[in-house]
Amino acid sequence: MNLKKKHGARRLAVLVTSFVLCINSMPIHAEDSVEDLEQQTNTLKNQVNDLNSEITSVSEELQDLVMKINSTKEAMEATAYDLANAEVNEKNQYEDMKLRIKQIYENGDFGYLEFLCSAEDMNDLLNKADFVKAVNEYDRQKLQELIDIRNSIEETQNELKDEEVTLNNLQVTLNKKQADLQTKLSQAEKDLSATSEQLASAKAAIKAAEEAAKKKAEQEAKEREEAAKEQVAQKPSAPSTPSAPPSGGSSSGSGSSGGSSQGGNYLGVFKITHYCPCSICCGPNGGNYTASGTRPTAGRTIAVDKRVIPFGTKVVINGHTYVAEDSGGAIKGNRIDIFVNTHQEALNKGVYYAKVYKQ
After folding, report:
1. Thinking of the domain 237-243+253-358, which architecture would CATH place it in?
2. Under 8 Å CB-to-CB from 208, ≥6 apart: which residues?
3. How many CA within 13 A on the CB side of residue 106?
4. With contact defined as beta carbons under 8 Å apart, do 271 and 277 qualify?
5. Which is nearest to 302 in space by CA: 273, 260, 332?
6. Could you tell me where the DSSP H helices lie in the chain?
7. How is the chain split into domains, by residue range?
8. pLDDT per position in the chain (359 positions), as tens?
């Protein structure tokens, strides 16, 4: 019966250890996933900000470009008006010159010829001839000026047309660039929304897993404690008077086992835990010496509450004799912490309740 209980206790300890290892390993992967999602979220946020800045810059360029296009159109309209006026002035000047030439060469009885013939003397004739020549030169010069003005206006108009074409092409390019950026921004915002949801779900899953693991560990610890108490309660009470040891035998001794070792004074039911010299159990500087100054030894050293069991007291737990040599801040009242060699061994032995006897 005792052998079956021991096997059952070992199986329970193995299950508990496996559960603890699984719980410890799960958050690591979850945290890695959360870290990756946070990094992706930050990257997408930066991408969205960059795209917004670029779209703003392109929009400002388009606004400036539209103003330039409008200004160019206004300049073209003004140039067209100036060109029309120049053409009218040129045409009028040309018609006036033709009329004066016609009057000189075709209508000799009127105009310049009459004007020349009316000269009183040679000096007057020469003066009037110079005047006619000056008028002709003026007509030609004025006509050339009007032609130059018209050519200049036409050249300006052509330049404005070329500029308008260039500005319109640039506007098309910027509109396409803005549309492409808007598409990228929409996709980045969708990705950011999806990643943010995944991040929130991952964090919620971690929190739920931690809470579930905590509740499960508390529930299993409670069940183990109740099972241990029930198991101790079902054991027959040890006799208050020690029975005589077999001939040639010893009734006590470290590491001894058997019913005779439980023949001392009954101290009560104690909660039994286990510890090792590692930093988890004893801290960074612990594990080399006990509170009483001895070196801890597996199979002998136990940590006790000195007010309940003084240092140096030998006690028997489940047929094995231990010596009270150590203590701890968590060891209070009816609790005994048994020293073992490794942390895994401490986890495997687990927590249980047992009757304790003073040898």
Report:
1. Beta Barrel (2.40)
2. none
3. 6
4. no
5. 273
6. 2-105, 112-117, 122-234, 279-282, 343-349
7. 22-211, 237-243+253-358
8. 444 444 555 565 555 555 545 545 444 455 558 889 889 999 999 999 999 999 999 999 999 999 999 999 999 999 999 999 998 998 898 888 777 766 655 554 445 566 667 778 888 878 867 877 887 788 888 889 989 998 999 999 999 999 999 999 999 999 999 999 999 999 999 999 999 999 998 888 888 888 888 888 788 778 777 777 776 665 554 444 343 333 333 333 333 333 444 557 999 999 999 999 998 888 877 778 999 999 999 999 999 999 999 999 999 999 999 999 999 888 999 999 999 999 999 999 999 999 999 99
Q: Residue 317's CB: how many other CB atoms inside 10 A?
A: 19
Task: Select from 312, 311, 328 the least CA-distant residue to 275.
Answer: 328
Q: Please give the Cα distance from 191 to 175 (Å, whole number).
A: 24
25/348 Cα distance (integer angstroms): 18
Q: By CB neighbour count within 10 A (0-12 exposed, 13-18 middle, 19+ buried), where does 296 fall?
A: buried
Contact 53, 185 (CB under 8 A): no
Query: What span, in angstroms and rounded, lies between the C-alpha atoms of 97 and 109?
Result: 18
Distance spanning both ends of the chain, measured CA to CA: 26
Architecture of domain 22-211: Orthogonal Bundle (1.10)
Q: What Rg value do the Cα atoms of the chain yield, rounded? A: 56
Q: Is 352 helix (H, G, I), strand (E, B) or coil?
A: strand
- Tell me the two tokens of residue 122: 């040679």
b/e sequence 122-159, b meaning 16+ C-beta within 10 Å: eeeeeebeeebeeeeeebeebbeebeebbeebeebbee
CA distance 317 to 303: 13
What is the amino acid identity at position 68?
K
